[in-house]
Amino acid sequence: MRIDLTFLLLLLGHVLGDFYLQSKALAQQKEDSAKALLRHSLLYALTLGAVLFAGLRFTQGSALLAASAGLAHFLIDLLKFGFLKGQKKKARFPRLVRHSFLLDQLLHLASLGALWALFWQEIILRPFVTIEIAHLPALPIELALCFLLVLEPVGLLIAREVLGGSVQLPQAEDVPGAIQNAGKTIGYLERVIVVLLLLYGQYSAIAFVLTAKSVARFKEIEQSRITAEYYLIGTLSSVAAAFGVAFLLGLCG
């Protein structure tokens, strides 16, 4: 069963506005600066509006949906801003701070779901959104959203919620000749390859991807138990997330 395409457009706008068009510097600044938070919210609203009006006919319902989604995002981020500011003065809820990224995203998804339920009957999709292309296993919007999700959003989710920064491994700049952000790039490629194999039903080939990665890291894993645990948790989380995204979007059985 496919997710409603209007909701997928909302998700696509959210992912682009909250992850890909928000710089790392702005993401850090908005936790301490109300002006940075406002800049992010305006950029998010413009991005979401552009995605919605590209895929929806301009009607009163679509205009209200875009405006409401932008406002809801700002209010949720403002709530997070106030909460984190208060916690810096007096930390009463360390677990909520620890999982603030996950809670923030869940609130955003809940708000998008509520707005979709409120406005979906007033929405008219543009014809090209529903067009199927030969040789593609799914609609272009589903594929685009899937790949965008398994890159930056899943990477941040694993880094902040699963690994949590509790393990300090050597950084690339500390190792002569090392490639900058190699681990992050490997994770991206791993999830993209897994999703591609899932889309075309090549489930057994996924084992070769994991085997190749394990062979490349074998000596490093063998020398350190902490590195081995970090590797296993990160890899299994990465693959599980790729499966989860593809399954939730209805791209694999």
Radius of gyration, in angstroms, nearest whole number: 20 Å
Element pattern in H and E: HHHHHHHHHHHH
Quick one: how many beta strands? 0
Low-confidence stretches: 166-173
| Helix vs. strand class | mainly alpha
Instruction: Please indicate the count of domains.
Output: 2
The biggest sheet amounts to: none
Bulk shape: flat
* Helix percentage: over 70%
Count of individual helical segments: 12
The pLDDT mean sits at 88
Could you tell me how far the N terminus lies from the C terminus, measured between alpha carbons in angstroms?
Answer: 10 Å
Residue fraction in strands? under 5%
Folded structure, characterized:
It is a single chain. The protein has helices spanning 5-20, 24-29, 34-55, 60-89, 94-98, 100-119, 140-150, 152-163, 182-199, 206-216, 218-223, 225-248. By secondary structure, the chain is mostly helical. The chain has 2 domains: 5-131, no CATH class; 148-248, no CATH class.
What labels describe this entry?
mainly alpha; 0% strand; 2 domains; single chain; 253 residues; 12 helices
Give a topology summary:
Layout: H1 5-20, H2 24-29, H3 34-55, H4 60-89, H5 94-98, H6 100-119, H7 140-150, H8 152-163, H9 182-199, H10 206-216, H11 218-223, H12 225-248
Please summarize what this structure is:
The chain has 253 residues and is an all-alpha fold. The protein is built from twelve helices and no strands. It folds into two domains: 127 residues, no CATH class; 101 residues, no CATH class.
